[in-house]
Amino acid sequence: MTDRYDAIVVGAGHNGLVCAALLARAGKNVVVLEANDRVGGAAVTREFAHGYSVSACAHLLYQLQPEVRKELGLSPAVAAGDLQTIALAEDGKHVRLAANGVEGVSSEDAEQYRRFRKRMTRFADLLRKHLNRKPPRLGTKSRGDLFSLVRLGLDMRMLGKNEMQEFLRLIGMNIHDEVTERFEHPQLKGAVCLDAVLGTHLGPRSPNTIMTYLYRNAGNHGRMDVPKGGMGSFSEALAHRARSAGVTILTGMRIQRIVVDNGRVTGVETAGGETFSSYTVISNADPKRTMLDLVGARHLETGFARRVRHFRSRGNAAKLHLALDGLPTVAGLVKKDFEQRLVIAGDEHYVERAFNPAKYGKYSPEPVVEMTFPGFRDESLAPAGKHVMSAVVQYAPYGLEGGWSGASKQAFTDVVIGTIARYAPDVASRITASELLTPADIESEFNITGGHWHQGELTLDQFLFVRPFAGASQYAMPLDGLWLCGSGAHPGGGVSGAAGRNAARTILEREKQA
Amino acid sequence: MKTYDAIVVGAGHNGLTNAAFLAKAGLDVVCVEKNDYIGGASVSRSLYKDWIYSNCSYVCSLLRPEIFRDLELHKHGLQITPFGGSVQFMQNGDYFGSYHDPEVAYREMARFSRKDADAYKRYSADTLRQCRFIRDFLLSTAPDPTSFRPKDILELMHIGGKFREMGENRMYETIRFWTMSVAEYLDEYFETDVIKTALSGSGIIGTALGIHSPGTAYVLLHHYMGEVDGNIGAWGFARGGMGSVARAIAGAFRTYGGELRTDAGVDRIIVRNGKVSGVALENGDEINGRIVVSAMDAKRTFLACMDKKDLPEKFHRRIRNFKTRGSSGKVNIALDGLPTFPALPEGSSLIHGDMHFIDSMERMERAYDDWKNGTWSKDPYVDALIPTLTDPTMAPPGKHFMSCFVQYCPHQIDGRRWTEEEKDAFGETVIDQIANYSPDFKDLVLHMEVRTPQDIEDEIGITEGNIFHGELTMDQLLFNRPVPGFAQYRAPVSGLYLCGSSTHPGGGVMAAPGANAAREILSDLRRPSTVPETFGDD
Amino acid sequence: MNRQEVHQGRLKSPFHSCLEKLDSVNEWHQWSGYSSPNELYCSDTEYFAIRNSTGVFDLTPMTKYRITGPDALGYLNRLVPRDMAKVAPGRVAYTVWCDDNGQVIDDGTIFHLREGEYRLCSQQRHYDWLLESTAGFDVTIAHETEDVAALAVQGPTSFAILSRMGLDGLENLKYFGLAHFDFHGAELLVSRTGFTGDLGYELWIEPGKAEALWDALFDAGKLHGIRAIGTHALELARIEAGFLAAYEDFLPADETVRTGVSRSPLELGLGWLVDFKKPNFNGRRALAREKREGSTWRLVKLDIEGNKVAHASYIFPNSRASGDNIGFVTSAAWSPVCKKNVALGTVKAPHGKPGDTVWVEIYYQREMHWNRRMAKAVVVDKPFWAPARRSATPPGLY
């Protein structure tokens, strides 16, 4: 392989594939190199027990950006669409939340929820525009940057005085205060808090959690879908688009290093000793892995390397997969409710208490859980009459005291199943196999440093102008020819394709200027 | 009946400052105070014969020197003496001290980590840069970014200009600084737990946040931006206690012809035809005034002292949602002699400064978890000082007292009032923690005053006993303080103003809110400002 | 418990007692925590010892780090803009090091002690920055300030003194070279370096042998006019030699609070240290941009008319001092050896090219009264004092 590619994309995560496809559409000769045997990165479907498959990491589609959908002509097949969130209560009086309404609460709460959602959706839409754009640099004389900044200001102004005031107030606030100001019902408060903290190292009382809530809603207005065939089939579809645009995708290609020669990247070298040459290397891997492991700090400047090392990316979300020989029984739920999204979030205090131990390197003794039963309308995932449960469980800190071992994983699995059993007493008797993926497992299986959902904490100090690092927020790294296109770059994680699309556009734009 | 030009409600340091600047402008001003003493929370009362305490606020550095100078507070008896150093007692019997001399401070830090000792320079420069940035805005009104008035736009452009002046990289640093947690900020400089712990305290003092909560790095600033004689970050004692601050400002106020009435608690702010006309006192008297300036916190002003129907509904709701959760307690302990701290070498100067009895970031954060659970920290962050070492006039000769600021302490226990037993237990928690490092401490205790946020509320009137009259979170700073659209000291009722710490730039004995409010009032009255300009860059 | 508090006063260098014995004026200041003499007898005399015979200055408080490990060269090459591959074992290199923005953190010397083993010597402490820079390199940084006592032996008779002391073969030591000798069973490192711009050496030894070294040196120097000197004399000599001092002619970039007050090597006239052929070093990208787009500041050496020293003077483009100043003087002195009024300063580019004429505004006091004078100054590009003897090998036996 001595041919030189126009671009090499390291990692076939959804962002890598989006980026590759868009570059190929622009006539580039692109190769995508994926370490694992299947494409998708953390958006894959795989068997975890004989006959049982599941979306191994990300399991819900709610953030895919319309721009990406449109430009690549994607229309993911959906097993269950527009999910309700059912916030479980031990007494069976569950609360059902949809994007624009809620059932099972007082009429005051319902009205407040409607207003809350309306405002959040409006703010999320504002945010969304800027998620699909390269963030501006500050203090430059570039017209593009200035224009972008002015647009941000104008977009806020366009909200109107009152809503702009609220936006500026809420963006730095915590979700706890907002839900306690508005709502009475514990499960309603818990469920909203859960959405704000999923995938982060934050509790509901942590300032910044309104921003993470908005982020989650910036894409599809809070609409959540279960992709048919699991998330992997979405990735396959994406890979198909890429290939038809001319992208070469090679799996089983673990990158050993990004080759730096005379101060610029010239290609990559795989663990198997193969070399691929290109003056443009775009990494879908997380920023730390890219800069410290694949490139190496010695090729960076000291201050920049320090910023990379301090990028916070310790994950807290674990995945629990259960093979079930039948659906568990939950008081107050009927069978078809299992196609919805079930959450165990208690109230806002429950979520905060679940977070506390994570600060000290311990897992939650009473975790928060987001469950889906993707096999409910999708026979491809489980044998007939059987089911799979795919759950996101928090908090399971990456840096568990003593480390994650077989014993600690078993203990935490028991904790989670025990927690679920408070709502579904027969769940344990239904389990025929289980798999727990801790952030440490996610790190080793999906090559994400810290096993973090967003490849890096989504807080205001790692957002927009300063994501992933101050001075390197526009996908170009301070090493000629090296780019980032993963969730660690602006805007962040979730199966959205935004980072990949923004990166591709920035690369093409830069080429035009040159 | 007489009509005053202005009635200032509350004779705390901000109310008095505001009253003084209004009186200086020639207005006929009365300042009314509910208690029989003045000062609000900057008060030194002698509750025990021969003992004077700074009962609430206890150290002084934030007081703006512009105001000190302009009101000639030295003529009214105010004298501030800096003190240096601090010590962190450690569970392993060691201690970490900080010293006034930078080389000694370096050597002490190097005892734990030479890297940290060197990183301190970078930390100081980066933090000082943020101090300088914010310090310029303390004596100015926060511009409203949603407004189209030329004044706001000009002020915003001025801030934007200052921001741009920092250069691209430092602009990013600034954004990060304002949004990150103090723990993460310190992680970027230091590796030693006890050093980070020592520096993190300033990030949470008075807040209902933990060291890991985003936004606390800024709070750090709130405690660093003070100065004593130009030494940014230095702290000092007011001679005779913090009451001297209030007495001095009151002295200036009287010099300008102002009238001070104590035992005159306001029951109600009277609104007639959409305009304030005066106040009704708790004793039934009414005082007429053309304007009313409230130094009370925003909640007490609008929710307790006003009729809901006199306020716009949205404003009322936003004030209700203004967060004022109390998180700090105060314990003053009278001592029969100077306690000994065996961890410290003989004759160590460190007892002259702040003493802390907590040595890890985990203990700091756990202290916060207790507060979240609705109770006081069982292993609290205590900022203890022995002011009598610097100012021996505050206790009988040979005796001392220790001022202990305690974080965290909730306004209520599990949502109900504190019982006497719980208050005692809270005091004991503090004494026990100190006694772990000072074996003779308990035997020296003569008496003590315990103040929970609830006591602060009962005594001084601050809602939920929040020492800053409202939490210092990102959503309640600058143009959001106390609520969006009303961050420029004017209430939505004609003639009514706020001048307390609920307004920009917030709490601490800074007197800036009082001064800024006076400037806005005088501008509304079309009178020349008597409020000094900021000293600016130095 | 009988715990020792961290030392509260000033530290004493291993040469302190030697200095104290010779001290008659008791004029000390603090340098990196140590007591260091401003002068010991009379700074004029001490200055002329440097230029006329030999002055001995206690360098121990200089910060010293030992850098070892397989990646030591790679590490240093990323740390500093200069190409360290060209610095062979037995050689010393003067260099600056920069932050990512190409702003100078400090300057100092790097000694290539033995193959792959280096010492970095600087005015300020940089352990934080040096350790932060190790990521990705197999290298060890050891702080050795307290483990190495050091003396500067500077002046025309310095070679004669050290030869008399028995340092055989010293005559072959070239300018910016270093050599190892045995001294009473300890390793004595001698480098032909200094801060005076004259013939001179620096001696490095373990602290336990410091006093013996001092005695041997002063024994040998008796007939060659050896004299212990303080900082005042050294300061005058370094200005004549055109050397920069941190906190005077530039500020360590990592300690600056305001923007625009730090300087790049290009702005300090040290462009010759920046090797753009190296693919990566701290500040490279920023310096390349600066080189392309032009620098903001320029360091100037000024030869000023008259004899009034231009301390902290503003610099103007014309004699009327009309309009804005273009910069200011950072170090100034009357040079006794050149009989010139000299200064280092910083001016805004494009002013300050060699040969340009500028004007400095000098304030000076005579019998309580202050006077002001606008003095004409010429920008020169060579050090004011650079005698051939400083680099002649073999050096003269003066």
Question: How would you sum up this structure, described in words?
Answer:
The complex is a heterotrimer of chains A (514), B (538) and C (398). With 514 residues, chain A is an alpha/beta fold. Chain A contains 16 helices and 21 strands. Among the domains of chain A are: 189 residues, FAD/NAD(P)-binding domain, CATH 3.50.50.60; 117 residues, no CATH class. Helices cover 36% and strands 18% of the residues of chain A. In chain A, strand 8 and strand 9 form a beta hairpin. The two termini of chain A are 28 Å apart. Chain B contains 17 helices and 20 strands. Chain C folds into three domains: 143 residues, 2-Layer Sandwich (Gyrase A, domain 2), CATH 3.30.1360; 81 residues, Aminomethyltransferase beta-barrel domains (Alpha-Beta Plaits, 2-Layer Sandwich), CATH 3.30.70; 87 residues, Elongation Factor Tu (Ef-tu), domain 3, CATH 2.40.30. Helices cover 18% and strands 32% of the residues of chain C. In chain C, helix 2 crosses helix 7. At the A-B interface, helix 5 and helix 12 of A face helix 6 and helix 13 of B.
Short description:
The complex is a heterotrimer of chains A (514), B (538) and C (398). Chain B is an alpha/beta fold.
Assembly classification: heterotrimer
CATH class of the domain at 3-79 and 239-324 and 470-524 in chain B: Alpha Beta
| Annotated CATH topology of the largest domain in chain C | Gyrase A, domain 2
Helix percentage of chain B: 25-40%
Task: Output the structural class of chain C.
Answer: alpha+beta
Head-to-tail CA distance between termini of chain B: 50 Å
**Major sheet size, sense and barrel closure of chain B:** 7 strands, mixed
Q: Main interface pair?
A: A-B, 38 and 38 residues
- Which architecture name of the domain at 3-79 and 239-324 and 470-524 in chain B does CATH use? 3-Layer(bba) Sandwich
Helicity of chain C, as a percent range: 10-25%
CATH architecture of the largest domain in chain C: 2-Layer Sandwich
Question: What is the strand tally of chain B?
Answer: 20
Mean pLDDT across all amino acids of chain C: 96
- Could you tell me the mean pLDDT of chain B? 94
Query: How much of the polypeptide of chain C forms β-strand, as a percent range?
Result: 25-35%
The amount of beta strand of chain B, in percent, is 15-25%
The CATH homologous superfamily name of the largest domain in chain C equals Probable tRNA modification gtpase trme, domain 1
Q: Report the biggest beta sheet of chain C as strand number plus sense, adding barrel if it closes.
A: 6 strands, mixed
The level 1 CATH classification of the largest domain in chain C is Alpha Beta
Shape of chain B: globular
Radius of gyration of chain C, taken over Cα atoms and rounded to an integer in Å:
22 Å
